[in-house]
Design brief:
Helices cover 23% and strands 28% of the residues. By secondary structure, it is of the alpha/beta class. It binds NADP nicotinamide-adenine-dinucleotide phosphate (NAP).
Length: 328
């Protein structure tokens, strides 16, 4: 636990592409930023580095002609920030007061800090269906996970059939990844057309190991505590009939929820829960001195490159706002 009476110029909450880019820019503007990078926790899906920590190859970030692993890329972002005047607290922010100035916050290990400006870049976390059986088999490596990259290489999935739930780019990416290990990968989608981009969808449809389970929803994860997942009960959305699909694992890829709970409603959100910016072309929120960047505000693009761009804008906006307040 640590705390000081020092009022920081700027605190950055979150350590994905937006957070680290904001840190690099803020440090180079002499703002000596403090980054709350998060920490793995059972209560929370956020991890330091954000969603790219769950990604394999990133092929669309300019500057890496041969692609780069997501975790390796986030390590590089972090190292680049630490080359400058950036300090890091490895805690999740659990409380924040944006009503009084200077703003103040507290981490889950007891560190407290205050700042004149705050940049929120806490990203978004994976969604779950909310079934009891899904929750049950999520524990203890029994076969349900939202991260093929983290768990896909486990022996229980090797040369066995597995399932991915979802129809977007993430579902296709997870399914493609699992074809390296599993004997077959069943994509369970509630409609008869993938939401994924055309090129990704075609890759899935062309892959001999991928089987599409169209118009299907998950009713129950089947199995027991010894064997883990042994199958899924699916319902056909058209005929309403149920069927059992034998698999040893299920990977959830049904989208994400922005990580805003710690804000306790102090900033406005849209109907999907994403933070609302005061001006969509900038990073300003309805509270002067509070800026937001990355997937926590972006339900449209959600790319590493756009998040990094927003992090840059937030640092520049914070720098200019602080200068207007006479804080440089
Ligand atoms: P997404 O595009 O929102 O897709 C979520 C999928 O899950 C949809 O197919 C949706 O079905 C399904 N779904 C949602 N809730 C469900 C529920 N309760 N039960 C069953 N199915 C449900 O999310 P995403 O795939 O995570 O992608 C998010 C963003 O990241 C997108 O912009 C995507 O392009 C981007 N992304 C890009 C890459 C890449 O370029 N390499 C990789 C991953 C993600 P419906 O289609 O019926 O709504």
């Amino acid at each position: 636990m640590s705390s000081s009476n020092q009022v920081e110029k700027v605190i950055i909450v979150g350590s994905g592409p937006a957070g680290w880019t904001a840190a690099i820019y803020a440090a180079r503007a002499n703002l000596n930023p403090l980054v709350f990078e998060g920490a793995p926790s059972s209560k929370n899906e956020m991890i330091p580095g954000g969603q790219l920590m769950y990604t394999t190859e990133v092929e669309n970030y300019p500057g890496f002609p041969n692609g780069i692993d997501g975790p390796e890329m986030m390590q590089a972002f972090r190292e680049q920030a630490l080359r400058f005047d950036v300090r890091v607290v490895s805690e999740n922010v659990t409380e924040i007061d944006l009503k009084n100035r200077p703003f103040s916050l507290a981490g889950d290990e007891g560190t407290t800090a205050s700042a004149n400006a705050i940049i929120i870049s806490t990203g978004a976390s994976a969604n779950w269906l909310g079934l009891e059986s899904e929750k049950h088999f999520r524990m203890g490596g029994l076969g349900v996970t939202a991260c093929a990259t983290c768990d896909g290489a486990f022996p229980r999935f090797r040369d066995k059939p597995v399932a991915v739930v979802g129809g977007g780019d993430s579902a296709v990416e997870e399914a493609m990844f699992m074809t390296k290990f599993a004997s077959s990968v069943h994509i369970i989608h509630r409609r008869d057309k993938l939401r994924a981009s055309k090129i990704m969808a075609q890759r899935a449809l062309d892959n001999d190991k991928i089987v599409m389970e169209w118009n299907s929803t998950l009713e129950e994860v089947l199995g027991d505590d010894k064997a883990g997942v042994t199958g899924l009960r699916l319902r056909d959305t058209k005929s309403r009939e149920t069927r059992e699909l034998p698999v040893t694992g299920m990977f959830l890829a049904i989208g994400h929820t922005p990580n805003t709970a710690f804000l306790n409603g102090q900033l406005d959100t849209d109907e999907k829960g994403y933070l609302e910016l005061e001006d969509p072309y900038r990073s300003t929120t309805k509270i002067e001195g509070v800026f937001a960047a990355g997937d926590v505000v972006d339900s449209v693009y959600r790319q590493a490159i756009t998040a990094a761009g927003m992090g840059c804008k937030a640092a520049i906006d914070a720098e200019r706002w602080l200068a207007d307040q006479g804080i440089e």
